[in-house]
Design brief:
Methylamine Dehydrogenase, Chain H, chitin binding, about 1250 residues, mainly beta, nine-stranded antiparallel beta sheet, calcium, signal, 10 domains, TECPR1 protein
Length: about 1250
């Protein structure tokens, strides 16, 4: 059975070890290795570490059978459950049920894929109930299961979060991510019930199994427990009983008659003949008075061992008891005794014949006034210790109390006392006789203007002050009076250490020391000064990289040596290591002044966390202008960027790079940096947090302080309730990073608070009332505007999109009158309006004749256009002619602003209209006017009194042969033209007349920038600028190849050039070469064949075309035999004497298209028949199937119809006819590299030939 048959032990040896006869209940070691085992009415099933599946022969419907061997079952599963049926989940969380299970065929016939995804599931043995949990710990139960429909019909979500769930006669039980245990009320003796809530049960378990009046489980240390006292009267039981032994997973079987489990070494154990009176009679290792027992061994001993065939367990125990330092012993192989002066936290389970005994230490930790005791020891002492048989605990405590620097002591073996000036974070538990005592410390004294922390941080760089008369106020005054002081340490009530840098972490060893931080105030400064710098090459030793960060802003390279200088190279670079992470707002570059200033043209600044500058984020755009000698260039980042490395590099040019000074400006201190970009964020997408859930750039995952879920709960989830933000162990990252969040009650008066219709605890719906509503609602302006079917406010699909959900953003009105897709008019109804309208206070308030919302004249002023700002009932009091209105604000302005109580909206609009570069303005608080030369994509809606106005754009002018878009893209590489009389037609003619021109930007109605490369994205900040792309004809199709726009440099098969070269010549060149997989056809006269394709092509020049050879490979989850391979699934495949006329197996067949392609249709056939086939004639085909697809595997997305339901395609009705399905007849074509066909029903056997049709134009 693969790697299942690697460990066979004689049961008689185990029985002898356990001191039992075969008539007694025992744990029996079963041959094989499994990582997960399950027992139920369908027998014993399991999976190993390779996800191979096994059935234990002879265990079907036999409550006590051990079976007689393992049968390997086709397929792969990571977890399995045997009950009334057999279910499982694979590595991709796909769900399967075993079909065809009968008494005569206990292994079944096939696996059926069930819709949905779960990471773990459990099946009841008695009521055919299936419960499971997904990767987000959401809980589901399967409904609609009947004898005729064993797979059921739907998954029904159940309230709560669990990582593991089990269903059985004792009800539904589960454990969450924090190992807390829960029982589902109302499910005992009624597994078919969904229950009515979760009851928290004391204790901690990582895995659990519900049986007949008993529940089994194991904790994080693999200790085994059973729940006692379960009955109809006490369905949650009365207490946990620990069972000696170690298992990582355990399951109880049919009617509780047996239990199976696996340990950390994947060894398999079975326990039979469980009864109500002896449900836990397992691992009954021989006991010795005064000792606790566990299975396993722990190498080594430090007390003289005893060997011999006559050694008994009693001899070994007596040996340990008689030695004063012995705290444990291992009894090994019935003839060796290893006494030890230290215990072992973990014992090795590899050899279950060995047994380990721990001496039971009866002493309760003795209390000492002024100290907190802990079990264990911590080596070393730095205050003179005291020894002797007469030493008492009181003597040791007095020793510590009398010493001014003593903060803790260890009392060892009742005769040694070790006082210490530093405590220990963790104590060793190996010797439970030792006790550690921490001196109780008073609360931290506070001081105005500083925040206090326990601990110390070595060193100071401001003159310290000492003396017995020094007070905390003196120390604070010392720091406050020094301009550079940001923190100080007050030490031992007589020493003051002021510091110019704070400490991220303080040393807690001495709790008497206190550290104080001055509140952080942002002041912008150059953080690159005198930092470590490097460059790509060195022209001469006099011009090193450090010249750019030495603080000298002189610009003379020679003879003053004030600048850096690289050698002549392609794209030279310079970079600086800031030594810590800062938030960078802008970078100033000072150019060489004594000559050669033009060499700095086309440079880019990057900022980020990586030493490899290519991985960091650009700050601003490429500086494409030609700098003058000695010019100071200030490069502004579009948004502040967090990073440690800053670089300057020439882009696309070969030249020297010379920099006289680079100043990197930040307004942040490293300790307050909040990392927000994808390459450096400190939180996770799954909203988990804490020490057990590391983030990409934090070993302890944080929560996004700018999100709706800024707080980390005790159980490791990000959220915003009091259980996330206000508990003792909660962490509020919004507070830590200084992010002010608008509370649920933002902007409400005291009177309004008495009538709000939502609650602070986020509960809603029937059964929950609010101050102003019998049925509590959710705040429509908060992060949680929707009420779920289970009565919680939130913002997920389960809160806003379910049948019983209520979205209060649109509740209480006829419905939202506009659509999310921006369509409007009679053909596009909205939830609350037919025809659909446009949002009158958005950037797109008008409906065009074509049914699209927008804000141009073509949307607002044409015949048939509708301006919904002018609709009845719309508030027009804030409308300004020539501007579009939006609610909210966007900080900053770059045109002189206006302030004053008399400033009117009209005055602000006039200010913007009178300035040639003004495109928008914000009117703030009815007395401030902020005109801007750039608009804002997103508005801050927190203050709805503020209003933002965008200047209306004129309708974009069309030019024949070009497509037009709003925005700009800096730079040009064809001679530009300027002038007040330049027209759009002049600019277009300039581009058309230049052979290499593919696009141009028409700027401010007087500048024309032609370009040989287009821009994928244009900046929309200035809507007056317009960008035009030359229309490129669709390239010709070549049979057997897919075509992409763009080029990819290089070739490794002999290329061909010439004006007479055709596309057919180039394709033939590639087809005739065995290793050719792609070619580029360049400029209609060059052919570059290649043995490797390119993942991405350069789209800058749309005239170049890249062709990929269509190479499709097929794989399958399984094959019926060597004659039925996946390659036999090609359409029109013919059967021979040795190769079957189709692929045949289950549950899926997968196509690898080589790269992502647009899939347009599917064609299928059944199994071809040939009289040469050695068997009888066959009639085999697939009658129906479904399809899934993805770019990394074929399981990411199931092909669904417009209603969101998975499409089941009609298959074949005979062997050889072809049935084609065009995806445009369903919900449309899809794009993917991997496509899986999942047979649903079939005739005879699952046998199929198939082909996918793809669009040869990959990116057009």
């Amino acid at each position: 059975m693969g790697n299942v048959g690697h460990a066979i032990f004689l049961t008689v040896i185990i029985l002898a070890l356990l001191g039992r006869t075969t008539a007694d209940p025992t744990w029996k070691l079963i041959d094989g290795l499994l990582k997960f085992v399950s027992v139920g009415s369908k027998g014993v099933w399991g999976v190993n570490r390779n996800d191979d599946i096994f059935y234990r022969s002879g265990t079907l419907e036999d409550g006590e059978a051990s079976g007689s061997g393992w049968v390997n079952i086709a397929g792969k599963l990571k977890q399995i459950s045997s009950g009334h049926s057999v279910w499982g989940v694979n590595a991709n969380d796909d769900i399967f049920i075993r079909q065809g299970l009968t008494a005569s065929n206990p292994t079944g016939t096939s696996w059926l894929n069930v819709a949905g995804q779960l990471k773990q599931l459990d099946v009841s043995s008695t009521a055919n109930q299936v419960w499971g949990v997904n990767t987000n710990d959401n809980i589901y139960r399967r409904t609609g299961i009947t004898t005729d429909l064993p797979a059921g019909t739907n998954w029904e979500q159940v309230d709560g979060l669990l990582k593991f769930v089990s269903v059985g006669p004792a009800g539904v039980w589960g454990v969450n991510a924090n190992d807390d245990i829960f029982y589902r009320t109302g499910t005992f003796g009624n597994e078919a019930s969904a229950g009515s809530g979760w009851e928290h049960i004391e204790g901690k378990l990582k895995q659990i199994s519900s049986g007949d009046n008993i529940v089994w489980g194991v904790n994080v240390n693999d200790d085994i427990f059973i729940r006692e006292g379960i009955s109809l009267r006490t369905p949650a039981g009365t207490g946990w009983k620990q069972i000696p032994g170690k298992l990582k997973q355990v399951e109880t079987g049919l009617s509780g008659q047996q239990a199976w489990g696996v340990n950390s070494g994947d060894y398999i154990f079975q326990r039979t003949r469980l009864t109500a009176t002896r449900p836990s009679d397992i691992f009954q290792l021989p006991t010795i008075d005064g000792y606790s027992v566990r299975v396993g061994d722990c190498p080594g001993n430090d007390i003289w061992v005893i060997y011999g065939d006559g050694i008994t367990l009693q001899d070994c125990a007596e040996r340990c008891t008689s030695h004063p330092d012995c705290v444990s012993f291992m009894f090994f192989d019935n003839k060796r005794c290893f006494p030890k002066s230290r215990t072992c936290e973990e014992t090795s389970q590899d050899n279950p014949k060995n047994v380990f005994y721990d001496k039971i230490i009866e002493d309760v930790l003795s209390a000492v006034d002024g100290y907190t005791p802990r079990t264990g020891d911590c080596p070393g002492n730095d205050i003179w210790s005291i020894y002797g048989d007469g030493i008492t605990l009181s003597d040791c405590a007095e020793r510590c109390t009398s010493h001014a620097d003593c903060v803790a002591f260890m009392f060892f073996d009742k005769k040694r006392c070790f006082p210490k000036t530093k405590t220990c974070d963790d104590t060793r538990k190996e010797n439970p006789k030792n006790v550690f005592y921490d001196k109780n410390v008073d609360p931290l004294p506070s001081i105005d203007g500083f925040s206090a922390r326990r601990g110390d941080c070595p060193g100071n760089d401001i003159w310290s002050i000492y003396g017995d008369g020094i007070t905390l106020s003196d120390c604070a005054e010392r720091c406050t009076s020094h301009a550079d002081c940001v923190a100080f340490m007050f030490f031992d009530s007589k020493r003051c250490f002021p510091k110019t840098k704070t400490c991220k972490d303080t040393n807690k060893d001495n709790p008497k020391n206190v550290f104080y931080d001055k509140p952080f105030v942002v002041t912008e400064r150059n953080v690159a000064l005198n930092k470590m710098a490097s460059q790509s090459s060195l022209f001469r030793s006099e011009y090193p990289a450090e010249r750019a960060v030495d603080g000298n802003t002189g610009t003379v390279l020679y003879p003053r040596q004030e600048c850096t200088h690289t050698g002549l190279e392609y794209e030279p670079w310079w970079k600086v290591d800031l030594g810590d992470t800062y938030v960078i707002s802008h970078v100033t570059v000072i150019n060489r002044g004594d000559c050669c200033g033009e060499r700095l043209q086309n440079f880019m600044v990057r900022v980020g966390p990586f030493e490899d500058l290519r991985e960091n984020t650009p700050c601003g755009d490429i500086y494409s202008e030609t700098p003058s000698d000695g010019e100071t260039i200030d490069v502004r980042c579009a948004e502040p960027i967090s990073g440690r490395w800053v670089s300057v590099q020439l882009i696309g040019r070969e030249d020297y790079l010379s920099l006289c000074e680079v100043q990197v400006f930040s307004g942040s201190d490293p300790k307050s940096v909040r990392l927000t970009d994808e390459t450096s964020k400190r939180w996770r997408d799954d909203l988990r947090c804490g020490s057990e859930f590391p983030a990409p750039n934090a070993t302890r995952g944080e929560c996004d302080p700018d999100s709706c879920f800024p707080c980390c709960s005790q159980s490791g989830y990000c959220g915003n309730t009091p259980e996330h933000c206000d508990c003792a162990d909660c962490v509020n990252y919004g507070t830590i990073y200084g992010v002010e969040k608008s509370p649920v009650w933002s902007g409400l008066s005291e009177e309004a608070l008495l009538s709000v219709s939502w609650r602070e605890d986020f509960r809603c719906g029937p059964g929950f009332s609010a101050p102003g509503a019998e049925v509590a609602e959710c705040n429509p302006h908060s992060c949680n505007p929707c009420c779920s079917g289970s009565g919680w406010c939130g913002n997920t699909e389960d809160h806003c999109g379910c049948p019983d959900c209520v979205d209060y953003r649109s509740h209480g009105v006829p419905g939202i009158k506009w659509r999310e897709d921006g369509r409007c008019g009679p053909e596009f109804p909205a939830p609350g309006a037919d025809p659909g309208e446009c949002d009158p206070i958005s950037l797109f308030p008008c409906c065009s004749a074509a049914g699209e919302c927008g804000g141009t004249a073509a949307h607002c002023k044409c015949e048939g256009c509708i301006d919904f700002r002018k609709s009845p009932g719309t508030d027009l009091s804030r409308e300004v002619p020539g501007f579009l209105l939006r609610v909210g604000d966007c900080p900053g302005n770059d045109i002189w602003s206006l302030y004053g109580d008399d400033i009117t909206l009209d005055a602000c609009a006039e200010r913007c209209n009178s300035h040639a570069d003004c495109v928008a303005f914000m009117f703030f608080d009815n007395r401030r006017c902020f005109p801007k030369t750039k608009t804002c994509k997103k508005m801050n809606k927190d203050n709805r009194k503020n209003v933002f106005y965008d200047k209306e754009s004129a309708t974009l002018l069309s030019v024949e042969g070009y497509t037009v878009r709003t925005g700009d893209c800096p730079g040009n590489d064809i001679w530009s033209i300027y002038g007040d009389e330049i027209t759009l037609q002049d600019c277009a003619e300039r581009c058309t007349s230049h052979a290499d021109c593919v696009a141009f930007m028409f700027f401010d109605n007087r500048r024309c920038f032609p370009k040989t490369k287009t821009c994928e994205d244009t900046s929309k900040e200035n809507p007056k600028n317009v960008f035009y792309d030359k229309k490129i004809e669709l390239p010709p199709f070549v049979d057997g190849f897919s075509v992409r726009r763009g080029d990819c440099p290089g070739n490794d098969i002999w290329s061909i050039y010439g004006d007479g070269i055709t596309l057919s010549d180039c394709a033939e060149r590639c087809t005739s070469h065995a290793d050719c997989v792609a070619f580029m056809f360049f400029d209609n006269k060059r052919c570059f064949p290649k043995t490797k394709t390119c993942k991405d092509t350069n789209k800058d020049n749309p005239k170049n075309v890249f062709y990929d050879k269509d190479i499709v490979s097929m794989t399958a989850s399984s094959e019926r035999g060597p004659e039925f391979t996946a390659q036999n699934s090609k359409l029109d495949w013919q059967e021979t004497a040795t190769a079957a006329g189709a692929w045949s197996a289950q549950p899926w067949l997968m196509f690898d298209l080589g790269r992502s392609k647009r899939v347009t249709s599917v064609v299928t056939q059944g199994r071809n028949y040939s009289p040469d086939w050695p068997g009888e004639s066959h009639e085999e085909w697939v009658m129906s199937y479904s399809i899934s697809y993805g770019d990394e595997n074929g399981d990411k997305v199931w092909y669904a119809g417009d209603d969101g339901e998975t499409v089941v395609f009609e298959g074949n009705t005979d062997r050889d006819s072809k049935v084609r399905h065009d995806f445009s007849d369903f919900s449309g074509p899809f794009t993917a590299r991997f496509v899986k066909i999942h047979p649903r029903t079939w005739h005879g056997w699952v046998s199929m030939r198939a082909e996918l049709d793809t669009d040869p134009y990959l990116d057009f």
